[in-house]
Amino acid sequence: xxxxIPDNKAVTxxxxxxxxxxxIRSKLKPRAQQPSDFGKITEIVTQxxxxxxxxxxxxxxxxxxxxxxxxxxxxxPINLPKSLLQDAGIDLKKVILLxxxxxxxxxxxxxxxxxxxxxxxxxxWAGDISDDAFQRxxxxxxxxxxxxxxxxxxxxxx
Length: 158
Known about the structure:
A five-stranded parallel β-sheet has the order 3-7-6-4-5. A two-stranded antiparallel ribbon has the order 1-2. The termini are far apart. The protein has helices spanning 18-27, 58-64, 82-87, 106-115, 131-143; strands at residues 2-4, 29-31, 41-46, 70-74, 95-98, 119-124, 147-153. Helix 4 (106-115) packs parallel to helix 5 (131-143). It is globular and about 35 Å long. The protein is α/β, with parallel strands linked by helices. The longest helix has 13 residues, at 131-143. It is built from five helices and seven strands; from the N terminus they run E-H-E-E-H-E-H-E-H-E-H-E.
């Protein structure tokens, strides 16, 4: 859910109590999703590429799993513990796991999942991709009114 601050006022300072937080939340207005909210690709670079090493990402993934459309996961790590996902609040009934094979690359699966319109979000462990491949993902995401998340490992520094 996207929120707007009334009258375009900025919120500054530190929220020190639950009461203050509740007061601020009551002033926020929900905003309907716009077409411009979709068609974006976000790249996340991690040390290991393993979800267990990304605790800050888990709440986002949980929220994405509760949307109306499917949430496609392409080439996730093999050591993806079901208990980790369930403990994070991820609705596994909305998650589709796709793995590449000899006929379909990670890139092809991601483009198809993004462009069909049946997934609101696609998360992919694709590794490094070219600028051209990144642009094709953006085009597919716009076509399917979806968003993509690319997770890749950080390159080792010698």
